[in-house]
Amino acid sequence: MRFDLFKIVILAALVFALAFASAPYFAFRALRAATAAEDVQATADLVDFPAVRKSLTGQLTPALASTSAEPPSIWQDPIGAFKRAIEPLAPPEPKVDRYLTLQGLSALTRGYRPGAAPPAARGVQPLDVKIRAALKGPWPAVPYWGMNRARIAVKRPGDEDRVTVFTFERRALFTWKLVHVQLPEGER
């Protein structure tokens, strides 16, 4: 009896460790499924939108010059000073918004740029079609896994050099949220 109890405890510990280690991968799969199904509430539960917006804004806005030129003086350059005075004060429309839509996140989870992804398969599909699609790939890789942070990389189908990396952060024991998206090198 005592040996059977020991086996049960060891088996329970192994199942817990496997579930604990694979939770970020299942969070990524849940994000991919929620965006493909256009489930707004499930996507909101899986994504920390302010953190992702901040990370994407840093990648998509051009770096400002550290040494900015002195603004034109009305005495030295009156036309330049007048142009600067009438420039619109509103910032340009952010490029980040197209990445944070359901279609944009769905394209990113499949390895594509927003707007460049082929349409996702909709409706009920036979099991053999789902299995072939899953085996075809692209398979998400785990370049980093830590206790509170994990990164999942997705290669673009047809172009293995372009990799989008998703960073998930632990919020509870088995709850992970997307906090950062690293775009491929040529798209920043």
Task: Describe the protein in words.
This protein is 43% helix and 17% strand. With 188 residues, the chain is an alpha+beta fold. The chain has one domain. The chain has helices at residues 2-36, 40-46, 49-60, 78-86, 102-109, 127-136; strands at 141-145, 149-156, 159-170, 176-182. Strands 1-2-3-4 form a four-stranded antiparallel sheet. Helix 1 (2-36) packs across helix 2 and helix 1 crosses helix 5 (102-109).
Q: Give the ordered list of helices and strands.
A: HHHHHHEEEE
| Number of H/I helices | 6
The number of strands is 4
**Strand content range:** 15-25%
Question: Total domains, how many?
Answer: 1
Look at the structure and give the mean pLDDT: 85
CA(first)-CA(last) distance: 61 Å
Rounded Rg: 23 Å
Largest sheet: 4 strands, antiparallel
Strand order of the biggest β-sheet? 1-2-3-4
Computed structural class: alpha+beta
Low-confidence stretches: none
- What coarse outline follows from CA principal-axis ratios? elongated
Helix content: 40-55%
Summed up, what is this model?
It is built from six helices and four strands, in the order ααααααββββ. The chain has 188 residues and is an alpha+beta fold.
List the helices and strands and how they pair.
Blueprint: H1 2-36, H2 40-46, H3 49-60, H4 78-86, H5 102-109, H6 127-136, E1 141-145, E2 149-156, E3 159-170, E4 176-182
Antiparallel strand pairs: 1-2, 2-3, 3-4
Features of this protein?
alpha+beta
